[in-house]
């Protein structure tokens, strides 16, 4: 049995101002979805890939077999330096190019050792990486409060202490300890303090700030996303995107297309999203579900694009359709041009470590 939509409820019967608002909303949703894909790239895709691969999805939601649980700070300090400099990407470069006073430190090194800028950056990067390794060694050794309060952690033999600046070293017989508090103050707390750029994530007090972030994240065995973050991400996606997909689906529901098409397409992004997020959780048990995520994500994208284009075309008569098609054509051409002229060169450069050409 077919259900006919009353003429008064058809999109094209709405007043022009209402149709313009709905059109602007649909276009905004489309642009927002593209920006979400950009964010997805910076958060989870490997350097050189536009979006995460099935292997990336398996690593994120299932983890790596044999990998041990790690803390938030360890994960950020070990992450690929080409990832976004943030709490979801990497903080490795907080010890080098993103650290406060990096340019001044390079300039001082150039003057002190009478060397060029490139050599100064290389030497300083080596020193800073030893500091990063020292902090990681303390975390992996249990991040003991006594060592924090004493401001001394005896470094393991594998740390090359000859490149550790004297200001961080304490000699204990034939062993070398690092001033772990000082290391946090100079490399983390400069931004992560109540008045710093990252004041919402302070790293000053051991019990309140440091301990939670050097303790392996709950449910993050094998390096998978922690249960806390997974629950937060699920909450944001289900509430935020469900509202958007619900609105785009409702708009299409009042179009003049056949009922069978609307019954399939209107709820499709919502249904695919629920399956997609369910696979996030199921992938923790079996990495096979991580591959399903790529399929459901593709369905969400294609159905959302279909909803937007079909709704825009149904709102207007012949002349309006021409304008909509013209705008879509210009937008598509612009995105294609931008992809090959901006995105592809960026990905190619990103795929080469430190920008060094092969």
Question: Secondary structure elements and their pairing?
Answer:
Blueprint: H1 16-44, H2 54-61, H3 72-78, H4 102-113, H5 117-140, H6 145-150, E1 153-154, E2 169-172, E3 175-178, H7 180-187, H8 206-214, H9 227-253, H10 259-265, H11 268-282, H12 288-314, H13 318-351
Antiparallel strand pairs: 1-3, 2-3
Helix pairs in contact: 1-12, 2-12, 4-5, 9-11, 9-12, 11-12, 12-13
Listing every helix as H and every strand as E from the N terminus to the C terminus, the arrangement reads HHHHHHEEEHHHHHHH
Q: Which structural class should the secondary elements be placed in?
A: mainly alpha
Report Rg: 26 Å
Instruction: Supply the number of helical segments.
Output: 13
Spatially, the strands of the biggest sheet line up as: 1-3-2
Nearest-integer average pLDDT = 86
Helical residues, percent: 55-70%
First-last Cα distance: 64 Å
Description:
- With 358 residues, this protein is mostly helical.
- It folds into 2 domains: 7-58 and 222-316, no CATH class; 71-215, no CATH class.
- Helices cover 59% and strands 3% of the residues.
- It is built from 13 helices and 3 strands.
- The chain has helices spanning 16-44, 54-61, 72-78, 102-113, 117-140, 145-150, 180-187, 206-214, 227-253, 259-265, 268-282, 288-314, 318-351, and strands at residues 153-154, 169-172, 175-178.
- A 3-stranded antiparallel beta sheet has the order 1-3-2.
- Helix 4 (102-113) packs across helix 5 (117-140) and helix 9 (227-253) packs antiparallel against helix 11 (268-282).
- The chain is elongated.
- The N and C termini lie far apart (64 Å).
- The model is unreliable at 354-358 (pLDDT under 50).
């Amino acid at each position: 049995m077919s259900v006919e939509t009353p003429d008064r409820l058809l999109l094209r019967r709405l007043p022009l101002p209402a149709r313009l608002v709905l059109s602007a909303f649909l276009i905004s949703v489309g642009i927002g979805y593209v920006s979400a894909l950009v964010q997805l790239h910076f958060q989870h895709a490997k350097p050189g890939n536009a979006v995460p691969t099935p292997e990336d999805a398996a690593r994120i939601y299932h983890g790596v077999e044999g990998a041990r649980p790690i803390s938030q700070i360890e994960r950020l300090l070990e992450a690929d330096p080409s990832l976004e400099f943030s709490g979801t990407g990497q903080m490795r470069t907080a010890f080098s190019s993103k650290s406060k006073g990096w340019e001044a430190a390079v300039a001082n090194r150039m003057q002190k050792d009478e060397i060029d800028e490139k050599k100064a950056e290389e030497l300083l990067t080596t020193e800073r990486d030893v500091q990063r390794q020292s902090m990681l060694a303390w975390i992996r050794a249990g991040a003991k409060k006594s060592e924090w309060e004493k401001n001394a952690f005896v470094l393991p033999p594998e740390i090359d202490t000859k490149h550790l600046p004297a200001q961080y070293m304490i000699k204990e017989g034939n062993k070398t300890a690092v001033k772990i508090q000082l290391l946090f103050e100079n490399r983390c707390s400069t931004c992560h303090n109540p008045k710093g750029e990252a004041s919402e994530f302070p790293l000053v007090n051991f019990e309140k700030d440091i301990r939670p972030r050097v303790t392996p994240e709950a449910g993050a065995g094998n390096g998978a996303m922690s249960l806390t973050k997974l629950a937060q991400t699920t909450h944001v996606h289900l509430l935020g995107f469900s509202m958007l997909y619900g609105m785009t689906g409702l708009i299409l529901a009042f179009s003049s297309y056949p009922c069978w098409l609307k019954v399939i397409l209107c709820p499709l992004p919502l249904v695919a999203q629920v399956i997609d997020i369910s696979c996030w959780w199921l992938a923790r048990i079996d990495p096979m579900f991580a591959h399903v995520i790529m399929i459901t994500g593709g369905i969400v994208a294609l159905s959302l694009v279909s909803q937007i284009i079909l709704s825009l075309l149904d709102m207007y008569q012949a002349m309006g359709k021409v304008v909509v098609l013209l705008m879509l054509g210009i937008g598509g051409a612009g995105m294609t041009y931008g992809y090959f002229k901006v995105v592809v060169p960026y990905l190619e450069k990103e795929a080469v470590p430190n920008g060094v050409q092969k």
